[in-house]
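User: Okay, second chain of the day. Same drill as before: sequence in, structure tokens out.
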Amino acid sequence: MRQYLETNVPWAKKIVKIQAEASVRQFYRLDDGDRTIVAMVYPAPCREEIERIVRLTDVYWQHGIPVPEIERVLDDRILLLRDLGDVSLQKAFRRHDKLWKQEALREVCAILATLRRIPTCNTGLLLGHERMKWEMDFFLEHFGGNFFPGAVDVENLRLRLYNMVERIEEISIFAHRDFHSRNMQVCDGRIYLVDFQDSMKAAPFYDTVSFVFDAYLDLGSLKEYFLRELEKHGIKVDHEQFYLTALQRNIKAMGTFGFQVAVKRHPAYKKYMPRTIRYILANPLAADFVPREIFVEALDGKMSPGAQNSPKP
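Assistant: Same drill. Structure tokens below.
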């Protein structure tokens, strides 16, 4: 991919790979001597997704939500984007005081309120019950298959997870789909959203719980502040729907982490498991759908991929 990029951007005097989330895409910072831009490179032609990113970029900007401006579409594999730097909201929270954090949270609330106003006709993708059930299957395969302690009645658990999904309202709104602190870049005093190519119709609280129960950022005592600010934007939490959606989202995340750690051999993702497990265990609706013990050993750090007994079929 780097060689392909070098061939297609001969004007770049320096090309540096940027560490990014696990993805088939790769990102590079290109320096022409005067400024830098970012190249998003696909391993193979991907016209449909590039066209989707271009279209969604326009949608986000039309509704006043900052996202990286597209400098140029080189071909079906390369997008050149404005360089927003390397400061994610996750990193920024470590560097700033409480007042700065409150200001940032107010901005995140405003973005969430704006996302809800984007007409759903702007995306053809739907995160409905069937997709959510598939995510539960993915969790059972990749977290369950690698981290469950002892014998677990997987089919019974699957039915309980499906029941949880079916209790989430089918009403859908426009959603970023992966609304967390590592997909927010702080640049020029503003928060920019990135990784929005999978924007879709999703449950009303999906983006909200993705941030409130972010695996990468613990809001701690600021969580209640954030929820109060949301209400000022007309986003009032429905207890059952909020926590059902949060539980599904966090369990889905555990499936992703299990896959990254055990299958893709990215051990860095293991450090995000404990916080996500604590979210699940603290969820007031969790006991109705998941047995506590399937997470406890993983939380205690006593398990490693492949070291446990096989789940009961």
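Residues 172 and 202 are 5 Å apart (CA to CA).

User: Thanks, on to the next one.
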